[in-house]
Amino acid sequence: MDFGNLIRQAAILALPLLFAITLSEAARGHVAFWLGDKTGWSQGRKSWNPANHISPLETIAIPMAMFFLTNGSFIFGNAKTIPIDYRNLRNHIHGAICVEMASPIALFAMALMWYLALAALTLSQVLEPFFVESCRAGVMVCLSLFAFQLLPIPPLAGGRILLFALPTKYAMQLARIEPWGIWIILILAFTQILGPFWMNPIRSLGLTVLQLATAPLMFLFH
User: What is the spatial distance between Cα 54 and Cα 49, in angstroms, rounded to a whole number?
Assistant: First the structure.
């Protein structure tokens, strides 16, 4: 991909990626608040405003660097983590699992919204390439981060769900890899193990679910 196309692709991905990263973290804060923890709220983080959750390094610099270094083939980023005290949650274990599930659920919900926006553009014959490609990018970014968050490696949501769901003995063993979790994930990504064996199957399944879920609506308005 030449540099001009790379810049164009970055512009298309920018808003979908920003919303996906920040609003999925915001969902965690809201669920934690609903279940009894006011830590994030007390620090002004119970908000759907993306600006409240942006980390200059993790939300902007790292995704941009990875995008250009990998010629647009891999991108990774994170929002400013919302502080949560799991001890304050009602029904500690169940509440903690619900908090960690909030992020992937929010990502799938956003994928559905981007998919519906794409369908609306198509049905109304608004075929402006930038808008259409942005909606397509929104679907794929959200499904990619959805699959990524479900990886059973802490500190990702899938790993944290396992930490809370497993018996103490096995949870403690899994917790030992958390300091190395991001390095493990990066190795899996750059050795191209992650894509074929995890990301691609879950993305494909997610896209199929979106198509099935919206099929009646598409039939009605087609």
Answer: 10
Smallest CA-to-CA distance from 131 within 144, 118, 113 is with 118
114 close to 16: Cβ distance less than 8 angstroms: yes
What is the model's pLDDT at position 111? 98
How far is Cα 29 from Cα 45, in angstroms, rounded to an integer?
7
- Two structure tokens written together for 114: 């981007």
pLDDT value of residue 1: 59
**Helices and strands counted in the chain (H then E):** 10, 0
Q: For the chain, give every domain's residue range.
A: 3-221
- For the entire predicted model, the pTM comes to 0.92
Yes or no: say if 149 and 158 are a contact pair by the CB < 8 Å rule. Answer: yes
Q: Which of 9-18, 66-75, 99-108, 164-173 has the lowest mean pLDDT?
A: 66-75
